[in-house]
Write a structure and sequence with these properties.
single chain; elongated; alpha+beta; eleven-stranded mixed β-sheet
Length: 1448
């Protein structure tokens, strides 16, 4: 029976209101989008030829994140409020009192408190939702260019838009009279690029939005307006011709053709027709969708590339339709086909589609067809409906209210049964008070039931309705405290922390898990080149904001300065202002946009010394390494160069901020990449032989970067004068340290060891590292030098390279096993490399992120990072943010192909190896048969060390640090496949200090949050700043949105909006801690004070024949919750401080008390209930027997009931108020006022009410002052009952503070004795020897310290390989469209061009130069040396042997 009752209660408490009012429907059927074509007859209803069938009606582009509409507000809000059991109870009580037999006062007056509670809560919810509607309106009223005119029609049917809350409340004529925006501001916004939501209009009409117009000439030579905003071009001639009209997002329809300009977001899922770039390639920023920072390349559908203007798009002969699959949540899946008017089909995949939530970058414009809108877009499908969240305290109150209701029911049943028994006994004896009780509705048999119901009304205050309105008021004030807190106010943007949901403030104090996005939340997505090591020497750089004096290319160089000349042809009125984080400016105007540059005076000195040093000197040798290092950075990439037409500043357009930072650093060092013209790269170098300082290289091959290769290489041929080859071919490589090092030639042991030490040092500082190397493949001078010196011939001659190039071209064009063939051919040439050094880049964190995460971990809050970035990036951020400690061990779980170790087996192996004592393997639901087979020696078969990448095998997993689990999205897909996988994943994650999920989709983020939230029952908080974070923000108990560069989608769906991640620390540790402690203390004290009153009434039942009569005069009972005892509990909720905020910020471990729910719970509730019952007995019986022994009157008459009961009221009020005050932690002026308010009021009311003459109205206590204030019993009993009632609590608090003080007590005492005490020195149990066991963190910190350069070990559970992480990370698009096009062009050119004629440059015999040699023209003149030649060469088998140094 108890189990059934619990299940019944659980079903009621888990009732989901959102499901009843969810607007979202399931995905529709596959669709066919008709572009400029009529719909077929099959699309129309046979009965109504003009009506389109429902399955062919598409969603509007209106996206609403709010909860209510005008129609649904009242029923949905009432249902949400009546999830509170107390509200249902009070409604029932109010209904009962509409029957005259149960009426005590006016029924309207009885129901008034409930109506006030419902109204205030409803108004608060309406205000919150209006704010959401306003945010939605700002997004839905953003603008986009839509094709119109010229006979273009869109016949696709679209569903109507929802009538939003704001639109319904603001009349249409009022909206039309909205104040017009300032034209200059609007134009400036348009010129500088739209924010991520688009062009915000705040509801203004389109005709009020000034719009830039660009004239395009059509075939007839007439200039037509390119854009139309509302009625700006209303004359018939312009509107009838094809042009782009500015339209709001929510009016966009499936089948519309739109034009998007650079730095504008996409309003829907759009099929690409054409772009401004060569070969119709476009670049998009997807960090708002999948969290990845690097740009992605997209290409137009080949069948639609001719649609590059409004006139062509509107032509009827270019009509077509698109067959699409049904809407899907998978971001990387799309099946569609374009069918032209002549019936030709062309396949469409995800690389040909712009998704809503992404932003167009590095592309002047793009034209496309809308395929999916609104709730059918992938980003919206990955986010859920706006939930109705309830705080944990409120959910815990329901069972407590339920307990009180059971007690109330028992009280009513007891009164009814005893009253019925007594009436039946005394009625037969002729009791005078039962005279006439023989009617159908008034007899001893039925009166018991009436008395039981009346008892429910008498004791109804045991469930205080005023508690709910008090909580709402207190939480509102707490939201204001957060808003006005200057410590979490961001002055840079003028943004305060905003509580968008006022009822979750106490949840902030109980957070156990934080789920955080990476990009824009923890990081700024700005890469800074911090340090580098070159030939064993570290250059640490100095921070500088001075712009280098690097001019833009001259007119004769402009043709080679940019690989994208189309971007330079921008309108004069729209200066290019790229906001992409992957854009690095070589020369920016001296304005606010100055960025940090890499400056190192020692590096500059070494370069200068190398230029002036004679050949053969140590400075010249080091100069050659400097030249090689910076040349690799300047040339080994795919970045493009453009020139700002206004400022003349050069700008690097890279697909990732990593690549931009590396190229920028090379430019800062003087090695300026000037651009690429087709396959010729131009480099400005301080070591160039030409007086112009320019060198040119022919790009031969690009060996692309992939996660499997972990390296990128380019093969270049050095060009001489007039772009003729001098015969030298180089391979320049950059990549992970283990991948590069294992491909080095022999004889570099010392250099490798030094570089590895530096890499470990860089990684320990949280920097992202790349290792650089090079190789000379072939060269006429090189072959001659080796022949003269009788050294080993170069590894590759020109003929051998040409043969390799043919094999490589065949591999990249292969249809079968392309990746394997490319990797095999690449390995043939990527070996025997010469190590140059390594770079260290900082992924700039938001201010204070490492410190905030360290303190949150100190508060015993588990932090999980959920990001769309790749594994290396996620691990690097984990190190830099202190999420992964220097002595932590990393467990990597990866999903992949079918031939890899299954995800379940990987998790089992991790548990078996690292947590054998956890008991997980002994659980019944664990499938031990999935464990990998073991060899005879007991080692798993997959744990095989291969090459030098396995550097740490012995002792792995035994590090003093904890464990951090890293799992990718593919593995999560398998983990969420069934309950067994989910259970094992959760158990493994619970054993780890932190978890990092990489390559995860927005939907997977929400699933991870729900896994912990439902599987552990823990309080969760999700924080993010992009649209891809909306789903997890909604899934968590508390959602926090950061209003950053990725827009306001996360903020619109959040419960709290902050400007910086570091503000989360104070939000939780101070406001959350305070709010939870205050609210918890207020609630139990609220229940206490009401039970004191009800207890006094209950004890009177023994003396009134259980007739449910009041012992007090009714007005005292009526004002009990309204005036007498309300102020102290409100004072606790508003002004109590468990400890000062400085202490909470300095000692994060204090949060553990809040996280462990010390301030509220059923146990604490029952303790206060017991104390209330005892104190009510003290008040009632002491005063009753005091007055009962002898009369207090001088005339000898017995006391009147209201005489001693008024003494009880005053005694109970003073006891309750002082007891509430005793439970506060700090006595401020506000607390003194709150505690004394009710006491003063009840005394004043008694004095005034007692002298009111019955001639005015019926006053049963008239003259009470005459008897009370003159009675010795009155003055004696009050202090007696107050002291006796409060004494146990006082003694317990005094004993605890004196004998066994908690750390809160100690902190308050120290703060009182020494207000200037620095509590930051008392971390980890430093508060006066707190008597508690050391935590796991303290034990770990007390162990032997490792060297600072030591970094965490990592174990890949797929391969079983353990290695030391040295910070490698590099982000770029893998196998993107742009790279495929580039590879194709290089392959075609090499297949068409005959082998080059190898020419030897005119050099004197014997003067063969080092590959990265320094020109003699810039060396200092040196005196001639004696005849003879000194030869310095490396080992014959090394690459250095192929480039021996010949010193004359």
């Amino acid at each position: 029976m108890p189990s059934k009752l619990a299940a019944w209660y659980r079903r009621i408490s888990d009732f989901n209101v959102e499901k009843l009012f969810s607007r979202r429907k399931g995905p529709g059927p596959p669709r066919t989008v008709f572009v400029n074509q009529p719909l077929p007859d099959a699309y129309f209803d046979p009965k109504k030829p003009t009506k389109v069938l429902n399955e062919h009606v598409y969603r509007s582009n209106q996206v609403i994140t709010s909860k209510y509409t005008v129609i649904t507000f009242l029923p949905r809000n009432l249902l949400e409020q009546f999830r509170r059991i107390a509200n249902i109870f009070f409604l029932g009580i109010a209904i009962l009192q509409f029957f005259p037999i149960f009426s005590t006062v006016s029924p309207g007056l009885v129901i008034l408190p409930l109506l006030i509670v419902l109204s205030i809560t409803g108004l608060k919810d309406a205000y919150e939702d209006i704010k959401r509607h306003q945010s939605d309106r700002a997004v839905n009223y953003s603008q986009v260019r839509v094709l119109t005119g010229g006979g273009f029609t869109n016949e696709n049917a679209t569903a109507g838009k929802a009538k939003t809350f704001v639109r319904a409340m603001v009349p249409k004529f009022r909206r039309r009279k909205a104040k017009r925006a300032h034209p200059t501001a609007a134009v400036e916004q348009l010129e500088h690029g739209a924010p991520p939501e688009g062009f915000h209009t705040d509801g203004a009409d389109l005709e009020t939005i000034p719009t830039r117009t660009v004239a395009h000439e059509d075939d007839e030579g007439e200039e037509l307006p390119d854009e139309e905003a509302g009625g700006l071009f209303r004359h018939h001639g312009a509107s009838a011709r094809p042009h782009w009209k500015m339209t709001i997002w929510e009016d966009l329809r499936v089948g519309d053709i739109v034009k998007i300009d650079e730095d504008e977001p996409f309003p829907a899922d759009i099929l690409i027709c054409s772009t401004s770039e060569e070969e119709n390639v476009a670049f998009v920023e997807t960090k708002n969708l999948d969290g990845e920072t690097n740009l992605k390349s997209r290409s137009a559908c080949p069948a639609l590339t001719h649609l590059n203007s409004a006139r062509v798009c509107a032509a009827k002969e270019n009509a077509f339709h698109v067959e699409c699959d049904r809407p899907d949540t998978n971001l990387y899946k799309l099946h569609a086909a374009v069918i032209s008017s002549d019936g030709q089909r062309s396949a469409v995949d995800t690389n040909m589609v712009f998704l809503r939530g992404t932003v167009l970058r590095n592309t002047q414009w793009a034209i496309g067809v809308v395929l999916f809108t609104g709730e059918d877009t992938k980003i919206v499908l990955n986010s859920g409906a706006t939930p109705s969240k309830r705080s944990r305290v409120e959910r815990q109150m329901n069972p407590q209210v339920f307990i009180n209701l059971l007690i109330l029911a028992l009280m009513g049943i007891t009164c009814g049964i005893v009253d019925s028994v007594l009436e039946q006994r005394y009625f037969s004896l002729g009791a005078p008070w039962l005279y006439g009780d023989n009617q159908s509705d008034n007899n001893p048999r039925i009166n018991g039931l009436i008395t039981a119901v009346f008892a429910l009304i008498t004791f109804q205050n045991i469930v205080p309705i005023s508690l709910y309105i008090s909580i709402e008021g207190v939480r509102t004030c707490q939201a204001l405290f957060i808003y006005f807190d200057k410590e979490i106010y961001y002055e840079k943007t003028g943004q305060a922390t905003l509580a968008r949901s006022w009822n979750l403030s106490d949840d902030l104090g109980q957070i156990e898990y934080i789920f955080s996005d990476k990009t824009g939340t923890l990081t700024q997505n700005v890469m800074l080149f911090r340090q580098c090591t070159i030939a064993g020497h570290v250059y640490r750089g100095e921070a500088s904001t001075t712009e280098p004096d690097i001019p833009a290319p001259a007119a004769d160089e402009s043709s080679s300065s940019s690989g994208n000349t189309a971007r330079e042809k921008q309108p004069t009125g729209s200066p290019k202002q790229s906001t992409s984080s992957s854009t690095a400016e070589v020369s920016a105007p001296a304005a606010e946009r100055a960025t940090t540059r890499f400056r190192d005076t020692e590096l500059e000195a070494d370069i200068t010394a190398a230029q002036r040093s004679p050949s053969g000197s140590p400075a010249a040798a080091h100069g050659r390494m400097l030249n090689g290092f910076w040349t690799v950075l300047a040339l080994c990439h795919t970045a493009l160069v453009s020139v700002d037409p206004d400022s003349g500043a050069m700008q690097y357009k890279a697909q990732s901020p990593d690549e931009a930072a590396l190229v920028q650093a090379a430019a800062d060092a003087g090695f300026v990449f000037r651009g690429r013209e087709r396959d010729v790269l131009t480099l400005q170098s301080p070591f160039a032989r030409d007086e112009s300082g320019l060198e040119q290289f022919e790009l031969l091959n690009i060996l692309d970067f992939t996660s499997a290769r972990k390296r990128m290489s380019v093969i270049l041929r050095k060009l001489g004068d007039e772009r003729e080859s001098d015969g030298k071919v180089f391979l320049l490589a950059k990549g992970a340290d283990n991948v590069i090092i294992e491909r080095l030639s022999k004889g570099q042991g010392q250099e490798v060891q030094t570089t590895e030490d530096h890499l470990a040092e860089f990684a320990s500082e949280g920097l992202r590292t790349l290792t650089l190397a090079y190789k000379v493949i072939a060269g006429t001078s090189l072959v001659a030098a080796c022949a003269i010196l009788e050294l080993t011939r170069p590894t590759y001659a020109e003929e051998e390279y040409e043969s390799w190039a043919v094999r490589y071209n065949e591999a990249i064009s292969s249809l079968d096993n392309r990746d394997e063939k490319v990797e095999a051919v690449s390995d043939e040439i990527e070996h025997d490399l010469k190590l140059l050094g390594a770079t260290a880049i900082e992924d700039s964190l938001q201010d204070g992120v490492p410190e905030a995460i360290a303190d949150l971990k100190e508060a015993d809050i588990k932090i999980w990072v959920l990001t769309g970035d790749k594994l290396e990036t996620a691990i690097a951020i984990g190190h830099s943010t202190n999420l992964i400690g220097r002595q932590d061990n990393i467990i990597i779980i990866r999903g992949g192909h079918q031939d890899t170790t299954p995800v379940y087996a990987q998790m089992l192996n991790a548990v078996q190896e690292f947590f054998p004592e956890s008991g997980i393997l002994q659980d019944d639901d664990v499938r031990l048969d999935q464990l990998p087979d073991v060899q005879a020696n007991g080692l798993p078969l997959q744990r095989v060390n291969s090459g030098v990448s396995s550097l740490v095998g012995q002792g792995n997993g035994q590090r003093p640090g904890g464990f951090v689990l890293v799992i990718d999205g593919a593995a999560l897909t398998h983990a969420f496949a069934d309950e067994a996988n989910k259970s094992l994943l959760l158990k493994l994650a619970m054993q780890c200090e932190g978890v990092i999920c990489c390559r995860v989709s927005p939907l997977q983020k929400a699933l991870v949050v729900k896994l912990v939230k439902d599987g552990v029952g823990a309080m969760t908080l999700a924080i993010g700043d992009g649209a891809n974070d909306v789903s997890m923000i909604q899934a968590a108990d508390v959602g926090v949105g950061i209003s950053g560069e990725e827009g306001l989608q996360a903020v619109n769906s959040s419960d709290y909006a902050i400007a910086q991640f570091r503000f989360l620390k104070r939000l939780l540790l101070v406001h959350g801690h305070w709010s939870y402690a205050r609210n918890g203390n207020m609630i139990v004290n609220f229940f206490y004070k009401n039970v004191v009153c009800i207890g006094v009434l209950w004890w009177f039942m023994f003396y009134c024949a259980w007739s449910s009569q009041y012992v007090f005069e009714y007005t005292y009972l009526l004002f009990w919750n309204t005036f007498w005892t309300i102020a102290p509990v409100i004072g606790i909720g508003l002004f109590d401080r468990i400890v000062d905020d400085q202490v909470l910020m300095a000692l994060p471990e204090m949060y553990k008390h809040s996280k462990k729910h010390d301030y509220f719970g059923t146990k604490l509730f029952l303790i206060y209930m017991f104390e209330a019952v005892v104190q009510s007995a003290v008040v009632f019986f002491l005063i009753l027997y005091t007055y009962d022994v002898t009369t207090s009157r001088t005339d000898g008459y017995s006391v009147y009931q209201y005489e001693f009961s008024t003494t009880m009221v005053i005694g109970a009020v003073m006891t309750a108020c002082l007891f509430n005050g005793l439970n506060t932690h700090v006595w401020t002026a506000w607390i003194f006022f709150a505690v004394s308010f009710g006491i003063v009021l009840v005394w004043a009311y008694t004095a005034v009410y007692s002298i009111i003459s019955p001639g005015w109205f019926s006053t049963p206590v008239f003259g009470n002052d005459h008897y009370l204030f003159r009675s010795a019993l009155f003055w004696l009993s009050l202090p007696l009952v107050i002291i006796i009632a409060c004494l146990p609590r006082y003694l317990w608090k005094a004993y605890r503070f004196a004998v066994n003080p908690g750390d809160m007590d100690v902190a308050r005492w120290i703060r009182k004795q020494d207000p200037t005490h620095d509590f930051s020195k008392d971390k980890n149990g430093g508060l006066a020897h707190l008597k508690r066991a050391p935590t796991r963190d303290e034990i770990r910190n007390s162990l032997c310290q490792r060297p600072s350069a030591f970094h965490a070990s990592r174990t890949d559970m797929v391969t079983g390989i353990s290695s030391v992480h040295r910070g490698f990370d590099f982000a770029t698009e893998e196998c993107g469209v742009a790279m495929q096009r580039m590879q194709s062009h290089l392959s075609e050119r090499q297949m068409q061009t005959p082998p080059r004629e190898k020419k030897t440059r005119g050099r004197r015999k014997g003067m063969h130069m080092h590959p990265f040699s320094i020109s003699r023209s810039i060396r200092r003149k040196r005196p001639p040396v004696a005849a003879g030649t000194e030869v310095v060469a490396c080992e014959p088998n090394s690459v250095a042997a192929t480039c021996g140094q010949v010193i004359a």
